[in-house]
Structure formats: C-alpha cells, structure tokens
Amino acid sequence: MKERERARWRCRRGLLELDVVLQRFMDKHYAALDEAGIRQFEMLLDFPDTDLWHMIVQKDEDEGKADLQPVLRLLQSV
C-alpha cells in the first residue's frame, strides 16, 4: 500500500491534463500491474512533464522507449 501511495503522490504534476490522466491510470490500472509494470510506470514518472505528456498523446514516437510501451499504452487508453 505504501508503494501505491508514493506513486499516487508522484502523479501530482504541473500540467493539469497530465494530473488527470495519471490519476485515472492509478484508479484503473495500477493495482493490476506486476513488478515490471510498476518499474515501467516509475520510469515514466521520471520524465519531465512535457516529455511525458508528448509520449502519452503520441507526439513522441521514440523507439528508444520500447521497454516502456506496455504501461505507456495503458496510459494512452485512459
């Protein structure tokens, strides 16, 4: 539970749109993530707001982030 609350706290960002998407993700998908999914989500939260937002709205098509795609697709679905 502590890990979930820490992740929820990290979802509080500077962009309102990003806050909304991340909170919906937490409500819908976070509890079902396995260890690898949680690590991917934590790695995504390390990105600056604008970079993360561009990835979510598919403006950043960088193949170098292929290892983050499973969780990124879930974020894009909310």
UniProtKB/TrEMBL annotation:
<comment type="similarity">
    <text>Belongs to the SdhE FAD assembly factor family.</text>
</comment>
<keyword id="KW-0963">Cytoplasm</keyword>
<dbReference type="InterPro" id="IPR050531">
    <property type="entry name" value="SdhE_FAD_assembly_factor"/>
</dbReference>
<dbReference type="Pfam" id="PF03937">
    <property type="entry name" value="Sdh5"/>
</dbReference>
<dbReference type="GO" id="GO:0005737">
    <property type="term" value="C:cytoplasm"/>
</dbReference>
<dbReference type="InterPro" id="IPR005631">
    <property type="entry name" value="SDH"/>
</dbReference>
<dbReference type="GO" id="GO:0006105">
    <property type="term" value="P:succinate metabolic process"/>
</dbReference>
<dbReference type="InterPro" id="IPR036714">
    <property type="entry name" value="SDH_sf"/>
</dbReference>
<protein>
    <recommendedName>
        <fullName>FAD assembly factor SdhE</fullName>
    </recommendedName>
</protein>
<keyword id="KW-0143">Chaperone</keyword>
